[in-house]
Amino acid sequence: MKQKSNVKERILDTASRLFYHQGFNSTGINQIIAEADIAIGSLYKHYQSKSDLLYHYLEQQETEYFANLDDYLKDEKQPLKKLLKLIDYRIKVQEESNCSGCHFIKVNAEIGRGDKKIEQFIVAHKERQRDYIKSLVDEISTVKSFSIEKKALQNSIFLMIEGAVVSASINGNTNDLKEVKKTINQFF
Amino acid sequence: MKQKSNVKERILDTASRLFYHQGFNSTGINQIIAEADIAIGSLYKHYQSKSDLLYHYLEQQETEYFANLDDYLKDEKQPLKKLLKLIDYRIKVQEESNCSGCHFIKVNAEIGRGDKKIEQFIVAHKERQRDYIKSLVDEISTVKSFSIEKKALQNSIFLMIEGAVVSASINGNTNDLKEVKKTINQFF
DNA sequence: GTCTATAAGGAGATAGAC
DNA sequence: GTCTATCTCCTTATAGAC
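The joint structure predicted for all components is written out below.
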Protein backbone atom coordinates (compact mmCIF):
# COMPACT_ATOMS: atom_id res chain seq x y z
CA MET A 1 0.00 0.00 0.00
CA LYS A 2 1.21 3.45 -0.92
CA GLN A 3 1.93 6.00 1.76
CA LYS A 4 -0.71 8.62 2.16
CA SER A 5 1.74 11.54 2.05
CA ASN A 6 1.77 13.91 -0.86
CA VAL A 7 3.51 12.48 -3.92
CA LYS A 8 5.39 15.67 -4.74
CA GLU A 9 6.75 15.84 -1.21
CA ARG A 10 7.76 12.19 -1.26
CA ILE A 11 9.72 12.71 -4.48
CA LEU A 12 11.61 15.68 -3.05
CA ASP A 13 12.26 14.01 0.31
CA THR A 14 13.64 10.89 -1.34
CA ALA A 15 15.75 12.86 -3.81
CA SER A 16 17.09 15.02 -0.96
CA ARG A 17 18.11 12.00 1.08
CA LEU A 18 19.86 10.37 -1.87
CA PHE A 19 21.50 13.56 -3.17
CA TYR A 20 22.90 14.22 0.29
CA HIS A 21 24.09 10.76 1.24
CA GLN A 22 25.29 9.34 -2.06
CA GLY A 23 25.76 12.46 -4.18
CA PHE A 24 23.83 14.17 -6.96
CA ASN A 25 25.68 12.58 -9.87
CA SER A 26 25.65 9.14 -8.28
CA THR A 27 21.88 9.24 -7.85
CA GLY A 28 19.75 8.23 -10.82
CA ILE A 29 16.18 9.12 -11.64
CA ASN A 30 15.29 5.43 -11.54
CA GLN A 31 16.56 5.06 -8.00
CA ILE A 32 14.56 8.08 -6.87
CA ILE A 33 11.29 6.79 -8.31
CA ALA A 34 11.93 3.29 -6.95
CA GLU A 35 12.67 4.44 -3.39
CA ALA A 36 9.94 7.07 -3.38
CA ASP A 37 7.61 4.38 -4.74
CA ILE A 38 6.12 6.65 -7.39
CA ALA A 39 5.78 6.49 -11.17
CA ILE A 40 8.23 8.19 -13.50
CA GLY A 41 5.35 10.11 -15.05
CA SER A 42 4.61 11.64 -11.66
CA LEU A 43 8.17 12.82 -11.27
CA TYR A 44 8.20 14.68 -14.59
CA LYS A 45 4.76 16.07 -13.90
CA HIS A 46 6.02 17.78 -10.75
CA TYR A 47 9.61 18.57 -11.73
CA GLN A 48 10.95 19.64 -15.10
CA SER A 49 14.27 17.80 -14.86
CA LYS A 50 16.82 16.32 -12.51
CA SER A 51 18.49 19.75 -12.24
CA ASP A 52 15.14 21.26 -11.30
CA LEU A 53 14.91 18.67 -8.53
CA LEU A 54 18.37 19.68 -7.34
CA TYR A 55 17.35 23.32 -7.14
CA HIS A 56 14.22 22.53 -5.11
CA TYR A 57 16.32 20.33 -2.84
CA LEU A 58 18.65 23.23 -2.03
CA GLU A 59 15.73 25.58 -1.61
CA GLN A 60 14.16 23.25 0.97
CA GLN A 61 17.45 22.81 2.82
CA GLU A 62 17.87 26.58 3.02
CA THR A 63 14.43 27.05 4.53
CA GLU A 64 14.77 24.11 6.93
CA TYR A 65 18.24 25.13 8.08
CA PHE A 66 17.26 28.56 9.33
CA ALA A 67 13.83 27.53 10.60
CA ASN A 68 15.31 24.68 12.67
CA LEU A 69 18.19 26.86 13.86
CA ASP A 70 15.85 29.63 15.02
CA ASP A 71 13.77 27.05 16.81
CA TYR A 72 16.83 25.51 18.47
CA LEU A 73 18.04 28.90 19.75
CA LYS A 74 14.70 30.50 20.60
CA ASP A 75 14.89 30.03 24.39
CA GLU A 76 18.42 31.41 24.74
CA LYS A 77 18.69 35.16 25.21
CA GLN A 78 22.39 35.69 25.94
CA PRO A 79 24.23 36.24 22.63
CA LEU A 80 27.40 34.33 23.61
CA LYS A 81 25.40 31.33 24.77
CA LYS A 82 23.39 31.62 21.58
CA LEU A 83 26.59 31.44 19.50
CA LEU A 84 27.77 28.39 21.42
CA LYS A 85 24.39 26.80 20.95
CA LEU A 86 24.64 27.43 17.20
CA ILE A 87 27.67 25.13 17.26
CA ASP A 88 25.64 22.59 19.24
CA TYR A 89 23.05 22.73 16.49
CA ARG A 90 25.67 21.98 13.83
CA ILE A 91 27.01 19.12 15.97
CA LYS A 92 23.52 17.72 16.43
CA VAL A 93 22.71 17.87 12.71
CA GLN A 94 26.01 16.21 11.77
CA GLU A 95 25.64 13.46 14.34
CA GLU A 96 22.12 12.73 13.13
CA SER A 97 23.24 12.49 9.50
CA ASN A 98 26.27 10.19 9.81
CA CYS A 99 28.51 13.29 9.53
CA SER A 100 27.74 13.80 5.87
CA GLY A 101 28.77 17.45 5.84
CA CYS A 102 27.07 20.55 4.47
CA HIS A 103 24.49 20.12 1.68
CA PHE A 104 25.67 23.27 -0.08
CA ILE A 105 29.40 22.59 0.09
CA LYS A 106 28.77 19.10 -1.30
CA VAL A 107 26.73 20.33 -4.25
CA ASN A 108 29.30 23.03 -4.93
CA ALA A 109 32.04 20.39 -4.97
CA GLU A 110 30.08 18.24 -7.41
CA ILE A 111 28.82 20.76 -9.90
CA GLY A 112 31.24 23.63 -9.27
CA ARG A 113 30.21 27.04 -10.48
CA GLY A 114 28.81 25.68 -13.74
CA ASP A 115 25.11 26.28 -13.19
CA LYS A 116 24.53 30.00 -12.49
CA LYS A 117 21.21 29.53 -10.70
CA ILE A 118 22.58 26.87 -8.36
CA GLU A 119 25.85 28.76 -7.88
CA GLN A 120 24.10 31.96 -6.82
CA PHE A 121 21.85 30.07 -4.47
CA ILE A 122 24.81 28.48 -2.72
CA VAL A 123 26.65 31.81 -2.49
CA ALA A 124 23.56 33.44 -1.00
CA HIS A 125 23.11 30.65 1.57
CA LYS A 126 26.71 30.97 2.74
CA GLU A 127 26.34 34.73 3.00
CA ARG A 128 23.26 34.27 5.14
CA GLN A 129 25.09 31.83 7.43
CA ARG A 130 27.94 34.32 7.71
CA ASP A 131 25.57 37.18 8.52
CA TYR A 132 23.87 35.14 11.21
CA ILE A 133 27.18 34.72 13.04
CA LYS A 134 28.13 38.32 12.35
CA SER A 135 24.95 39.53 14.08
CA LEU A 136 25.55 37.36 17.13
CA VAL A 137 29.10 38.70 17.50
CA ASP A 138 27.75 42.25 17.10
CA GLU A 139 25.41 41.58 20.00
CA ILE A 140 28.20 40.11 22.12
CA SER A 141 30.37 43.15 21.41
CA THR A 142 27.92 45.43 23.22
CA VAL A 143 28.72 43.73 26.53
CA LYS A 144 32.22 42.25 26.00
CA SER A 145 35.50 43.23 24.38
CA PHE A 146 37.88 40.94 22.51
CA SER A 147 41.58 40.76 21.83
CA ILE A 148 41.34 40.93 18.04
CA GLU A 149 39.36 43.15 15.65
CA LYS A 150 35.65 42.43 15.53
CA LYS A 151 35.54 41.96 11.77
CA ALA A 152 38.41 39.47 11.90
CA LEU A 153 36.71 37.60 14.72
CA GLN A 154 33.42 37.39 12.84
CA ASN A 155 35.05 35.95 9.75
CA SER A 156 37.23 33.61 11.82
CA ILE A 157 34.29 32.05 13.59
CA PHE A 158 32.38 31.55 10.36
CA LEU A 159 35.40 30.00 8.63
CA MET A 160 36.31 27.76 11.58
CA ILE A 161 32.80 26.33 11.60
CA GLU A 162 32.94 25.78 7.84
CA GLY A 163 36.27 24.02 8.21
CA ALA A 164 34.99 21.93 11.11
CA VAL A 165 31.90 20.80 9.19
CA VAL A 166 34.11 19.72 6.28
CA SER A 167 36.35 17.95 8.78
CA ALA A 168 33.29 16.13 10.17
CA SER A 169 32.44 14.80 6.73
CA ILE A 170 36.02 13.65 6.16
CA ASN A 171 36.72 12.13 9.56
CA GLY A 172 33.23 10.92 10.39
CA ASN A 173 33.15 12.66 13.76
CA THR A 174 32.38 16.06 15.31
CA ASN A 175 35.65 16.47 17.23
CA ASP A 176 36.64 19.66 15.44
CA LEU A 177 33.22 21.22 15.90
CA LYS A 178 33.55 20.53 19.64
CA GLU A 179 37.01 22.09 19.63
CA VAL A 180 35.65 25.20 17.90
CA LYS A 181 33.13 25.58 20.68
CA LYS A 182 35.89 25.48 23.30
CA THR A 183 37.99 27.92 21.31
CA ILE A 184 35.21 30.46 20.97
CA ASN A 185 34.91 30.51 24.74
CA GLN A 186 38.57 31.52 24.89
CA PHE A 187 38.05 34.42 22.52
CA PHE A 188 35.74 36.21 24.93
CA MET B 1 51.78 14.30 -34.21
CA LYS B 2 51.63 12.81 -30.75
CA GLN B 3 53.36 14.52 -27.90
CA LYS B 4 56.62 12.94 -26.89
CA SER B 5 55.77 12.75 -23.22
CA ASN B 6 55.16 9.43 -21.53
CA VAL B 7 51.71 8.02 -22.25
CA LYS B 8 51.06 6.94 -18.67
CA GLU B 9 51.88 10.41 -17.40
CA ARG B 10 49.68 12.03 -20.01
CA ILE B 11 46.73 9.88 -18.97
CA LEU B 12 47.13 10.81 -15.31
CA ASP B 13 47.69 14.50 -16.01
CA THR B 14 44.58 14.71 -18.18
CA ALA B 15 42.48 12.73 -15.73
CA SER B 16 43.70 14.93 -12.87
CA ARG B 17 42.80 18.12 -14.67
CA LEU B 18 39.32 16.85 -15.55
CA PHE B 19 38.61 15.27 -12.16
CA TYR B 20 39.54 18.54 -10.47
CA HIS B 21 37.77 21.00 -12.72
CA GLN B 22 34.62 19.15 -13.72
CA GLY B 23 34.41 16.43 -11.06
CA PHE B 24 35.11 12.71 -10.90
CA ASN B 25 31.60 11.50 -11.67
CA SER B 26 31.13 14.04 -14.44
CA THR B 27 34.29 12.93 -16.20
CA GLY B 28 34.05 9.93 -18.51
CA ILE B 29 36.75 7.56 -19.65
CA ASN B 30 36.04 8.59 -23.24
CA GLN B 31 36.74 12.23 -22.49
CA ILE B 32 40.00 11.35 -20.78
CA ILE B 33 41.30 9.30 -23.70
CA ALA B 34 40.17 11.93 -26.20
CA GLU B 35 41.84 14.85 -24.42
CA ALA B 36 44.96 12.87 -23.54
CA ASP B 37 45.03 11.75 -27.17
CA ILE B 38 45.69 8.12 -26.31
CA ALA B 39 43.94 4.81 -27.07
CA ILE B 40 41.52 3.19 -24.65
CA GLY B 41 43.70 0.07 -24.67
CA SER B 42 46.60 2.13 -23.33
CA LEU B 43 44.50 3.45 -20.47
CA TYR B 44 43.49 0.01 -19.26
CA LYS B 45 47.04 -1.25 -19.74
CA HIS B 46 48.33 1.31 -17.24
CA TYR B 47 45.36 1.61 -14.89
CA GLN B 48 43.01 -1.12 -13.69
CA SER B 49 39.87 1.02 -13.56
CA LYS B 50 38.56 4.56 -13.27
CA SER B 51 38.72 4.23 -9.46
CA ASP B 52 42.35 3.19 -9.75
CA LEU B 53 42.96 6.37 -11.74
CA LEU B 54 41.28 8.38 -8.98
CA TYR B 55 43.58 6.90 -6.37
CA HIS B 56 46.71 7.68 -8.39
CA TYR B 57 45.38 11.19 -8.94
CA LEU B 58 45.11 11.80 -5.20
CA GLU B 59 48.50 10.21 -4.62
CA GLN B 60 50.10 12.61 -7.10
CA GLN B 61 48.33 15.62 -5.59
CA GLU B 62 49.56 14.65 -2.13
CA THR B 63 53.16 14.45 -3.29
CA GLU B 64 52.98 17.63 -5.36
CA TYR B 65 51.28 19.62 -2.61
CA PHE B 66 53.99 19.13 -0.02
CA ALA B 67 56.88 19.27 -2.49
CA ASN B 68 55.68 22.58 -3.93
CA LEU B 69 54.89 23.96 -0.48
CA ASP B 70 58.35 23.11 0.84
CA ASP B 71 59.87 24.71 -2.21
CA TYR B 72 57.74 27.84 -1.80
CA LEU B 73 58.77 28.26 1.85
CA LYS B 74 62.38 27.15 1.65
CA ASP B 75 63.99 30.61 1.77
CA GLU B 76 61.97 31.81 4.76
CA LYS B 77 63.46 31.03 8.17
CA GLN B 78 61.16 32.91 10.56
CA PRO B 79 58.28 30.61 11.58
CA LEU B 80 55.59 33.32 11.66
CA LYS B 81 56.55 34.57 8.22
CA LYS B 82 56.59 30.95 7.08
CA LEU B 83 53.03 30.47 8.32
CA LEU B 84 51.89 33.62 6.52
CA LYS B 85 53.66 32.45 3.39
CA LEU B 86 51.82 29.13 3.62
CA ILE B 87 48.62 31.13 3.19
CA ASP B 88 50.20 32.93 0.23
CA TYR B 89 50.87 29.52 -1.26
CA ARG B 90 47.23 28.51 -0.90
CA ILE B 91 46.16 31.84 -2.42
CA LYS B 92 48.54 31.37 -5.33
CA VAL B 93 47.36 27.80 -6.03
CA GLN B 94 43.69 28.85 -5.90
CA GLU B 95 44.21 31.86 -8.14
CA GLU B 96 46.03 29.71 -10.67
CA SER B 97 43.24 27.12 -10.73
CA ASN B 98 40.17 29.35 -11.13
CA CYS B 99 39.48 28.88 -7.39
CA SER B 100 38.44 25.28 -7.76
CA GLY B 101 39.06 24.41 -4.13
CA CYS B 102 40.87 21.52 -2.48
CA HIS B 103 41.28 18.29 -4.48
CA PHE B 104 40.70 16.16 -1.40
CA ILE B 105 37.64 17.99 -0.08
CA LYS B 106 36.07 17.75 -3.52
CA VAL B 107 36.63 14.01 -3.86
CA ASN B 108 35.36 13.48 -0.32
CA ALA B 109 32.20 15.42 -1.20
CA GLU B 110 31.65 13.32 -4.31
CA ILE B 111 32.35 9.82 -3.10
CA GLY B 112 31.90 10.32 0.65
CA ARG B 113 33.40 7.72 2.89
CA GLY B 114 32.32 4.86 0.66
CA ASP B 115 35.69 3.69 -0.63
CA LYS B 116 37.91 2.76 2.33
CA LYS B 117 41.20 3.19 0.48
CA ILE B 118 40.30 6.65 -0.84
CA GLU B 119 38.74 7.66 2.48
CA GLN B 120 41.87 6.79 4.47
CA PHE B 121 44.07 8.58 1.99
CA ILE B 122 42.04 11.78 2.33
CA VAL B 123 42.03 11.55 6.14
CA ALA B 124 45.82 11.07 6.14
CA HIS B 125 46.35 14.04 3.83
CA LYS B 126 44.29 16.33 6.05
CA GLU B 127 46.17 15.11 9.11
CA ARG B 128 49.45 15.92 7.41
CA GLN B 129 48.25 19.41 6.51
CA ARG B 130 47.15 19.93 10.11
CA ASP B 131 50.49 18.70 11.46
CA TYR B 132 52.37 21.05 9.16
CA ILE B 133 50.58 24.05 10.68
CA LYS B 134 50.90 22.59 14.16
CA SER B 135 54.68 22.43 13.79
CA LEU B 136 54.93 26.02 12.58
CA VAL B 137 52.89 27.26 15.55
CA ASP B 138 55.11 25.18 17.87
CA GLU B 139 58.12 26.98 16.45
CA ILE B 140 56.47 30.38 16.83
CA SER B 141 55.60 29.57 20.45
CA THR B 142 59.29 29.39 21.37
CA VAL B 143 59.67 33.12 20.70
CA LYS B 144 56.14 34.53 21.15
CA SER B 145 53.17 34.08 23.45
CA PHE B 146 49.51 34.18 22.47
CA SER B 147 46.23 35.10 24.09
CA ILE B 148 44.57 31.69 23.69
CA GLU B 149 45.75 28.12 24.32
CA LYS B 150 48.27 26.82 21.82
CA LYS B 151 46.29 23.72 20.93
CA ALA B 152 43.17 25.79 20.26
CA LEU B 153 45.19 28.18 18.14
CA GLN B 154 46.69 25.37 16.07
CA ASN B 155 43.31 23.86 15.31
CA SER B 156 41.77 27.28 14.65
CA ILE B 157 44.34 28.18 12.03
CA PHE B 158 43.98 24.84 10.27
CA LEU B 159 40.18 25.07 10.27
CA MET B 160 40.10 28.70 9.15
CA ILE B 161 42.27 27.85 6.16
CA GLU B 162 40.05 24.88 5.32
CA GLY B 163 36.99 27.09 5.53
CA ALA B 164 38.63 29.79 3.44
CA VAL B 165 39.60 27.34 0.69
CA VAL B 166 36.01 26.08 0.54
CA SER B 167 34.86 29.69 0.44
CA ALA B 168 37.22 30.31 -2.49
CA SER B 169 35.62 27.48 -4.46
CA ILE B 170 32.12 28.78 -3.71
CA ASN B 171 32.72 32.49 -4.27
CA GLY B 172 35.38 32.25 -6.95
CA ASN B 173 37.80 34.53 -5.12
CA THR B 174 40.47 34.39 -2.42
CA ASN B 175 39.09 37.16 -0.21
CA ASP B 176 38.65 34.92 2.82
CA LEU B 177 42.13 33.45 2.49
CA LYS B 178 43.49 37.01 2.49
CA GLU B 179 41.41 37.81 5.57
CA VAL B 180 42.80 34.74 7.34
CA LYS B 181 46.31 36.03 6.71
CA LYS B 182 45.46 39.37 8.32
CA THR B 183 43.76 37.64 11.24
CA ILE B 184 46.74 35.41 11.97
CA ASN B 185 48.87 38.50 12.30
CA GLN B 186 46.49 39.69 15.03
CA PHE B 187 46.83 36.47 16.99
CA PHE B 188 50.56 37.02 17.63
C1' DG C 1 51.60 1.56 -28.63
C1' DT C 2 47.37 2.12 -32.30
C1' DC C 3 42.50 1.02 -34.13
C1' DT C 4 37.55 -0.68 -34.10
C1' DA C 5 33.90 -3.55 -32.49
C1' DT C 6 31.13 -4.84 -28.89
C1' DA C 7 29.39 -6.17 -24.59
C1' DA C 8 26.16 -5.08 -20.91
C1' DG C 9 24.13 -1.79 -18.59
C1' DG C 10 22.48 2.73 -17.03
C1' DA C 11 21.41 7.48 -17.86
C1' DG C 12 17.58 11.20 -18.58
C1' DA C 13 13.47 11.93 -20.71
C1' DT C 14 8.93 11.24 -23.55
C1' DA C 15 4.51 9.14 -25.01
C1' DG C 16 0.44 6.60 -24.64
C1' DA C 17 -2.90 3.46 -22.36
C1' DC C 18 -5.51 2.86 -18.15
C1' DG D 1 -2.14 9.34 -10.23
C1' DT D 2 -0.53 4.35 -12.27
C1' DC D 3 1.87 1.26 -15.83
C1' DT D 4 4.96 -0.14 -19.75
C1' DA D 5 7.38 0.79 -23.92
C1' DT D 6 10.71 3.31 -26.16
C1' DC D 7 14.14 6.77 -27.70
C1' DT D 8 18.75 8.40 -27.69
C1' DC D 9 22.80 8.62 -25.73
C1' DC D 10 26.44 7.58 -22.72
C1' DT D 11 28.89 4.66 -19.38
C1' DT D 12 32.85 1.38 -18.03
C1' DA D 13 35.26 -2.23 -19.70
C1' DT D 14 37.03 -6.16 -22.78
C1' DA D 15 38.82 -8.38 -27.02
C1' DG D 16 41.19 -8.81 -31.14
C1' DA D 17 43.60 -7.13 -35.33
C1' DC D 18 47.46 -4.24 -36.84
